[in-house]
Amino acid sequence: MSSDVFAWTFPGGKLKQEVTSITLANNTAKVVDVIVPPGKRWLLLGIKAVNDDNVTRVIDIFLYKEDSKTNKLRHLAGESVSQYDVLQYPNCKTGYSNRLDLPSLIVLDPDNTINVTWAAGGASSGSTDADGLVIEYLEITI
What we know:
mainly beta, Jelly Rolls, six-stranded antiparallel β-sheet, four-stranded antiparallel β-sheet
């Protein structure tokens, strides 16, 4: 048997990279909830949230047990993000960087909710970013 055989044997699920367009309006908060669908389980790999506005905004990422957002499980990240910059989880640092931190892998069950909030940042021009929110995860059917 050859020792140079490479095989994918970890049953980690199908890689998903969900891209959402985000429109930020003048001095208005933006809230996006992403809910794990019934019959699915996710292994969260990373989240990118962009502040494509011309003012600084606080971006928060929370994890809730259910879509009604009654039970908050974690505050994954929260930072003041400069204009045209990005909040990258799990690095929890603004800006694109060449760093590779070990990811903080989180298993999400059906109905768990990822809540991303861009706070109102004051008078601004507003903006739309085609990939303003990107959530990467492995998905399995349960």
